[in-house]
Amino acid sequence: xxxxxxxxxxxxxxxxxxxxxxxxxxxxxxxxxxxxxxxxxxxxxxxxxxxxxxxxxxxxxxxxxxxxxxxxxxxxxxxxxxxxxxxxxxxxxxxxxxxxxxxxxxxxxxxxxxxxxxxxxx
Length: 122
Fold this sequence. Notes:
single chain; mainly alpha; 2 domains; 4 helices; 88% helix; 0% strand
């Protein structure tokens, strides 16, 4: 019985994905057809179609999985220990100092190679 339920879900999911693709295609075709209209109206229409297509896609099995992963990611982001302002400034200063040091080393190497090549060439 479970496999027939899974087949029905898959069949409906396929139909839902067809609707999503049709909505995206309608958006592309409509944007091309109404190319002379105001950009604001075309953008609003595309955003509305994208929202509807997204809502339909979230009703599929893969869409529900994506929504679950997004909820879990939101929970994990809350667990992140963010650096304090002082740690952020110190780390930024270290990175900038290192970038400046590497830039000076590369400039020196470039100048040395340019001097060697120019002395060899003439």
